[in-house]
Specification:
alpha+beta; six-stranded mixed sheet; four-stranded antiparallel sheet; 8 helices; 12 strands
Length: 322
């Protein structure tokens, strides 16, 4: 009997499913810090300098320095464990145990006389009320006690635990050239239409292009000894502005042609004005006469002085706005 009760108890507790829910809550920021490192791969770079009518490209090799901004914060991992039906098992097991215990402990309250109203085939009278109460009490205890114990154990297994740990998050990443060293080599002007220009050798890490060369040569990128050359946004914008201005400022100023364009295509002329205006950012670029002629043509063509009428947005190379 005891073995049967123990087996039922083990099965009741061990086979009950345990539901587990885990969630993560972010806590306060503990600290922020910077982490710097070098990638260890030197790459060719170029800087641009303009002294009209020349563009100077200064080549160098530099490592890539990476700066990471991190935030360290507290993180709470909350685990909630629950057993479905644990409360019901405690309630029903408690009722059955109480009734069964009452029947067993209070069996003396029942008559021990056999039931003379009933007789079996062998001539035996029926069981007494005390024996019936004892039997039912044992049965109820056999069912109620395992259910009660199992429910209590399940309730003890339920609950919530909290674990706090440190977590790290990268907030920003910045990579810039560092530790530059002048570099000499053969420069290829690559990526243009038609046959590529002849390669050119640097002198003391520099290559000089005139405005006439920048206007006639077709290229989209630079190669130093076969490796792509990287340019910062400011240097790339200055290079594109120089090439644009080399074409705009090459032709002589024709006020009559500008006046006709102001009447037929004023929007195109305003766009050209913005491009010429960007040329004023290049040291020594003779953009003043052309800019004044365009303003005069627009004022005559529209009847409104150009200074009083804002120019519409134009596709100006980045970094050339005043």
């Amino acid at each position: 009997m005891k073995r049967w009760v123990a087996s039922a108890l083990v099965l009741a507790v061990g086979c009950t499913p345990l539901d587990m829910e885990r969630r993560t809550e972010r806590g306060p920021v503990l600290r922020t810090y910077l982490q710097e490192s070098q990638l260890g791969e030197r790459m060719p770079f170029a800087r641009t300098e303009v002294s009209w009518p020349q563009l100077t490209l200064r080549f160098s090799t530099a490592d890539i320095c990476r700066t990471e901004q991190h935030a360290e914060y507290a993180e709470d991992i909350i685990t909630t464990r629950s057993v479905p039906g644990a409360a019901g098992a405690v309630s029903s097991g408690g009722v059955l145990t109480a009734v069964g215990g009452f029947l067993v402990l209070g069996r003396t309250l029942f008559s021990n006389s056999p039931d003379r109203d009933g007789i079996d085939r062998e001539g035996h009278y029926g069981a007494s009320s005390r024996k019936v109460a004892t039997t039912w009490g044992v049965v109820l205890l056999s069912v109620g006690v395992p259910a009660l114990v199992a429910g209590i154990v399940q309730l003890t297994r339920s609950g919530e635990t909290k674990e706090t740990r440190k977590a790290d998050e990268m907030l920003a990443l910045r990579e810039v050239p560092c530790q530059p060293q002048p570099a000499d080599g053969v420069v290829d002007l690559a990526g243009g239409n038609g046959p590529p220009p002849e390669p050119r050798a640097t002198v003391n890490g520099t290559l000089v292009l005139s405005a006439d060369e920048a206007r006639s040569l077709s290229f989209k990128g630079l190669l130093l000894d076969g490796s792509p050359v990287l340019l910062q946004d400011e240097d790339l914008s200055r290079l594109e502005t120089f090439r644009t201005c080399a074409s705009l400022l090459a032709a002589p100023v024709d006020p009559e042609a500008l006046a006709r364009q102001a009447k037929t295509h004023p929007d195109r002329l305003r766009t050209k004005r913005e491009l010429v205006r960007a040329c004023t950012t290049l040291p020594g670029a003779p953009a003043g006469p052309l800019l004044e002629a365009i303003d005069s043509a627009l004022a005559l063509g529209t009847g409104i002085p150009q200074e009083a009428k804002p120019s519409p947005p134009a596709t100006t190379p980045s970094g050339t706005e005043l």
